[in-house]
Amino acid sequence: MPARLIGRRVRVQLVASQLLVFDGRVEVARHERCTTKGGQVLVLDNYLEVLLRKRGALPGASALAQARARGVFTATHDAFWAAARKALGDTAGTRALIEVLLLHRRLARHLVVAGIAAALSVGSVSPDVVAVEARKRSPDGVTPAEVPRGRGRVVSLPERRLADLPRDERPLPTVDAYDQLLTGTSEVTR
Q: pTM for the whole thing?
């Protein structure tokens, strides 16, 4: 369940192989149902906001171990984390990794992994570089992650701002006045 819902009442529905979590009528999580007695299925993504504040908890987190075992946290992620910790230190390096992991919410998994690999190939451990590289590999520049059934499309803040703003009808700026400075004339027209 997302960390933002800690302490809130939610409705849980169990189906054959999944556990669905609802906040009111909105589906907020869908997880694989654990079928072993006393077992747990932890999803690393649900802990990222908490781990941003408690970065020292990530190396020993059970959710990280399960993500590695399921192949969700790949060797590419590990390589980024090691490089980030080496370049930035443990705390800042772990924060950079968590910011990269948060990209998985907005971009398809294969694009983020490709972005990580591209950033590492140029010696960068910046989450911003990973995001740019991931978007560059998308056919349309920005690819939202696969959205499970029951959830709407996530709209980014820049998309929302562009949708609400009127079209800019102002003429493009010119540099004609500066051209006159280069020719040595003293009269500037507007």
A: 0.63
